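Quick start: what a row looks like.
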Amino acid sequence: MTNKTTLILHEKLIAWQVACELLRVVRDARISDAKLRDQAIRAAQSTCLNICEANGRDSPADRRRVFAIARGEAAEAVGAMQVAGILGACREEAVEDARRLGGRVAALLSGLIRG
C-alpha cells in the first residue's frame, strides 16, 4: 500500500510554497495583454509543477536537472511580469512582488540544486 505522505512531500519545501506565492501574484496582476498574461501564468505554473516533479525523482542528478528547469521557469515568469510593467499592462507593485518572490524561489532552488 502506498504511503499517502510520499506523494505530497513537495508541500513541505519552502521553494514550493514561495513558487505558489509567485503564481498567485502573477494571477492577481491581471496583465492586460492576453498573450503576455498567458506566458507569465504558464511559466509560474511550470515553476510549481517542476518543483513537484523534481521532488518525486529518485536520481539526484535528475532531481537537480528538474529543479534547474523550475528555476528557469521562475525567471521567465518574473521577466514576463517585468515586460508587462514596462508596457503598462500591470501594476508596478505586482512587478516588484514578482521580483522579490522570483528571487527568493531562485535562491531556494539553487540550494536544492547544489544538494
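That is the whole record. The domain at 4-114 is CATH 1.20.1440.60 (de novo design (two linked rop proteins)). The mean pLDDT is 94.
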